[in-house]
Amino acid sequence: MTDPQTCPDDSEPGGYAAARLRLLHQGALTGPPRRAALARLTDQWLGALLGETRGVALVAVGGYGRGELSPRSDLDVLLLHDGTADISKIAAIADRVWYPVWDMGLALDHSVRTPAEARRTAAGDLKVHLGLLDARHLAGDEELTAALRTTAYADWRAQAPARLAELRELGEERIRHQGELRFLLEPDLKEARGGLRDATALRAVAASWLADAPRAGLERARAHLLDVRDALHLTTGRATDRLALQEQDQVAAVLGLPDADGLLHGVYEAARTVSYAADVTWREVGRVLRARSARPRLRRILGGRGGRGGFVEVERLSLADGVVEQDGEAVLARTARPEHDPVLALRAAAAAAQAGLPLSPHAVRRLAASAGPMPQPWPADAREQLVTLLGAGPPTVPVWEALEAEGIVSRLLPEWEHVRCRPQRNAVHRWTVDRHLVETAARAAALTRRVGRPDLLLVAALLHDIGKGLPGDHSVTGEALARDVARRIGFGAADTDVLATLVRHHLLLIDTATRRDLADPATVRTVTDAVTDTATLELLHALTEADALATGPAAWSAWRASLVADLVRRAAAALAGGAEEEPHAPGPPAPEALRLAADALRTGGPVLTLESRPEGMGPAENGAPAPVGMELRIAVPDQPGVLPAAAGVLALHRLTVRTADLRAVDGALLLSWRVAAEYGSPPGAARLRNDLVRALDGSLDVPGRLAEREAAYSRRRRGMVPAPPSVTVAAAASHGATVLEVRAQDEPGLLHRIGRALDQAGVWVRSARVSTLGASAVDAFYVTAPDGAALTPRAASAVARAMEEALGG
């Protein structure tokens, strides 16, 4: 090593200081090249300070070890010695290095240890061990540094299960205190979730050889956060990681950005990339560790090395067509072909969210790389899957973020780019605009039992702030965007108008209720002039609550809820004038249905037809999205138990009921169904008829078979708690029957359970209209007493309560 007295000027304190100032304030370098140049300059200076030594090495650790020196970064340095020299000599060497650094006013994190001491310290201090993983030789005995690195990595890999658990626990504790970087107006660039500390943790996980982080964009995101921290240090002249509001415009200017919003947008984008990589990586760590712990058990059970040839088939449970569960994730089936199935991305996401599972990053990358373009307008199945995804509640959020991470959301909804990672400079808001929209949909999922069109509520929740980030009033701009989106995803004209109204007036109820006199008729007219029917008012009420709950705790309270409810009650009363028609009443049966009924009466048994139905592109006649799949018609001589038997047989064959129509005609029951296979090929008509005959005569145990299926289905729905079912009596909805409206989470066997509950209540179902909107079932049953008369109000209420109990409400 060169003697300090013969170093170039830049190696002496004055020379180093001048060179450092030139590099930071006058040089052309920025970003990673400047950080690397500052590290090289500091290496040269510290190496010269150490001088010629034997059995001693100067080692950079931590961020300095990675060669990433920000303007005000600490110098993390370890003086390593072999333990043969007198301690006073080692102290003198240390003073020779430390004091010039202190004299320069630089922050120094230093230690003096032998390799054995360094190893013991690392064993008891995770942060020390992490620092050693980035150890880099500066000067002195290179063999000491090389041996230290080798030992540090060997110990890390040997102790990985315990050390990684400790690392994750520390990270979770840090996040509890610091929050999520991408949602904070004054984030800590290092300590908050998605910040530099998490990026460093991912390097440590990779060093364990247990798992590796997704590489796409991660290094770029980390470099951007470091660039922002550099600019923050230069702006403030302090070693700070907190991006305070009053400094954001200056930091933005240093980085050549237009304003503080542009700065936060870039920071949030980077943090989102790091956060997603961390989620994926830690999930993979857990999977690997679980697999390791299970191997000895498998060997004991199967013998040898896991059975014949040591191979154990990984269990794969079907979730939807082309989607299976494997190792706690939703993955693509082996037969899935994304390039020929543009709806697969939404179907996989919906299946994952409904099952409460993460969507495999490998599956998302494959979908992003190979899925073909979505037809315009969307097929009805695509719209159904989007609504199903949004209706899953809190599990929707991580699945949506997985789609966002690979650009699938912006490809499906180009308008999303306006709101992605957009900050909201309002202390009331907890989230960025994009996350707020997804959170609103998750909140709205719990309110779907309150509305007749849950699909419109969920889509309106996703779009209500879509106009933010564009010039003008975001409600007005958003209305136009919502119309474009609604038409593109296949809603008809009437539904598009409703969605546009909800987006345009999503602030109407809360603003009016909290700022106007509710007793003033003009206040109510403000609402009824904008919302002209009770169904839309019902939707707007639920959207208002979901929006406020997703904003933050200060945006909704019992007082605000009561004011809004009072305003809605007054507006609904004003809109209720005039006679109401029977909204669910079916029209006359088709001629072919009458022919089936005649055949059933003639043969004394069920008659059915099953036809493939081209996928609908527009809305159905009742305004709901057009169903997809196959059309099944059944005629049966009128007898008890037809509805639960037919619905049970369909559930056993994994046929999902999209819509159903039941009516009694001349001594026969006619059932018209729109069904779709959950996955695989549908059964033939002959097989369905044979099983229906057995279900009606009692030789097929439909309840028992479905109970087994339901138990397996419930186990798979981790983390998802749907809103409870609701059964209400529709007052004055029919002159000759009692109308029971059922709103519930759609699931296998639901219609069978409804039919059994009605049978057990001793009522006759004269007709029914059943529709599935995403993950929600909205059904109406026209029932009578056995004598054909409508139920008394007391009897109707009792039946409704019994049905809620039977459905788990």
From TrEMBL:
Glycosyltransferase keyword on record: no
Keyword Ribonucleoprotein: no
Region (Uridylyltransferase): 1-318
Catalytic activity from the UniProt record: [protein-PII]-L-tyrosine + UTP = [protein-PII]-uridylyl-L-tyrosine + diphosphate; [protein-PII]-uridylyl-L-tyrosine + H2O = [protein-PII]-L-tyrosine + UMP + H(+)
Record text on activity regulation: Uridylyltransferase (UTase) activity is inhibited by glutamine, while glutamine activates uridylyl-removing (UR) activity.
Leader peptide range in chain numbering: none
Span of domain HD: 433-556
GO MF terms held by the record: nucleotidyltransferase activity
ACT domain location: 631-707, 739-809
InterPro entries (UniProt xref): ACT-like_dom_sf, ACT_dom, HD/PDEase_dom, HD_domain, NT_sf, PII_UdlTrfase/GS_AdlTrfase, UTase/UR
Record keywords: Hydrolase, Magnesium, Multifunctional enzyme, Nucleotidyltransferase, Repeat, Transferase
Cofactor dependence: Mg(2+)
Coiled-coil residue spans: none
EC number(s) reported in the record: 2.7.7.59, 3.1.4.-
Entry domain remark: Has four distinct domains: an N-terminal nucleotidyltransferase (NT) domain responsible for UTase activity, a central HD domain that encodes UR activity, and two C-terminal ACT domains that seem to have a role in glutamine sensing.
Family: Belongs to the GlnD family.
Biological role: Modifies, by uridylylation and deuridylylation, the PII regulatory proteins (GlnB and homologs), in response to the nitrogen status of the cell that GlnD senses through the glutamine level. Under low glutamine levels, catalyzes the conversion of the PII proteins and UTP to PII-UMP and PPi, while under higher glutamine levels, GlnD hydrolyzes PII-UMP to PII and UMP (deuridylylation). Thus, controls uridylylation state and activity of the PII proteins, and plays an important role in the regulation of nitrogen metabolism.
Protein name, UniProt field: Bifunctional uridylyltransferase/uridylyl-removing enzyme
Organism: Streptomyces hiroshimensis
Gene field: glnD
